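2024-03-11 09:14:02 DEBUG pipeline.ingest accepted 1 chain
2024-03-11 09:14:02 DEBUG pipeline.ingest length=556
2024-03-11 09:14:03 DEBUG pipeline.predict start
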Amino acid sequence: MTDSTTAGGSPPSGTKRSKTTTLPPDVLRDASRRLGWAALVYSGTFFLAFFGSSYLFHGGPLGDEVIAPMDQGNMVVPTIVAVVSIAMGLAVFLLSRYGRMAPAKLLDLGLGFAVIGAFGISMSEFWNAFPVWSEGVFGSVNYLGIPWECVWIIAFPVLAPNTPSRTLLASLAAASTGFATVALSRAVGPMSSDVPMSVFVAYFGFSTYVCAGIAYVASRVIYGYGKHLSEAREIGSYQLEKPLGQGGMGEVWVAWHRLLARPAALKLIRPEVLVSRVDRTAIVRRFEREARATAALKSNHTVGIYDFGTTEEGDFYYVMELLDGLDFSELVHRFGALPAGRAIHLLRQACHSLGDAHDAGLVHRDIKPSNLFTCRLGPDFDFVKVLDFGLVALRGTHLDDATELTVEGQTAGTPAFMPPEVARGAADVDRRADIYALGCVAYWLLTGERVFTDDSPLAVIAHHLQTAPVPPSRRSELDVPADLEQVVLACLEKERDLRPNDAWELDIRLAACESATTWDEGKAREWWETHLPDLTARPSGSHEAATPRAVLRPRL
């Protein structure tokens, strides 16, 4: 890439953003939804105003004796136009809700609907208006006021923005519908020809055409704002599409690579959220280290890093794969504790990621349910990804060196999953800290409960230092086999030497459990098809995958 380095390289000092000629995707989606609702309101209002009045005055409760002069004459042509206008409004609404048309194309179609809609309004307003336009009644233009299509002409570009040039053409065409209706009615319809055409030209020139000019100005303002917004959402080769989450240190967005058409999750830290230069330096160093450390790992069970760098505004970002699924925290919150076989299946995959990290001399230091993600990846289900190496430490790194990258006021780790040696502030935290934290995660998966709970984080940390955990079998409604329980309790030993030595040893112990063979790919697929059918039916990596029901939500 020319504007940002690939993961593992040196981040650029600046990232030049290219100009864009389109609105941001989420703005287009919102505009297409508004277009749909506007079309539905138009159809409903037109139906009530046109056919409702016919019912009231012709055989309805008001009777024929109060028929207004404008209702007299030939109604065949305006009725046909009314039916077409209402039908097109309903079609636009259905397309916006259930169609597969791209939002930009739907908005272009909406311009045609704007013209037809204005023509329908004009036909209902002026086709039979010959008494009003007679010389005797038309004493003053003020008597007629402003045509109703003026409201439609001005409101449409606000509801469904498009390029100023296209909006101008559509607005001029819509503004001409009133004049066209009068001219057509004079030629072949019921309207009187007593009034000179110059009167119509003056009337519409000071009403609908002025409104078309106002619509053009409004369109330039709205579209210009959208372009600036789109340019502000371009980072490197990626276009930010929609936010996934926001926290005290930054944001996570769904992003699309402009050339590869690949969805991604872009993690961004804004300098304005930092309270001091020290905080800014520490956080940027932490994010850069997280990107480099994660990119250096080779396990398929570690979230992939595509790119990272620094924008010209000083924002640090990195781009990672977008996942369809949910983290372990949400998994248990929504569906309850897991059976032993599935828990082993998920934990062994996490061991593969951590084993790769440990072999590279890295310690994650923040293993917890929200940093472990189960997803659909291509044809595979219950595929685990380990996220957020933000507190990663090199093996042998002194604690002071590691914690200097922690922002003041934040804990290096999460109390509910914090190893005793980290809580004590040990200087030689190693891979067995991750084993303890993964034991806490296993406890969570099997019981739906944390190992220790109390009223304050400090009290929870004290439990990790002093209190023996209650065996998970006593806190779970599901069966927790004795061999699996022994592995989990071994991970939760206070003394590091009593735990499995690394993730590979833990993986071997989990594989030796009798329940390890009770969960397979077939059961995983069946579970996903039953509980998350939306993610099962959609091809992984498709554009729809950019807005899944449950998506990657990295910690901020």
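2024-03-11 09:14:41 DEBUG pipeline.report The radius of gyration is 33 Å.
2024-03-11 09:14:41 DEBUG pipeline.predict end
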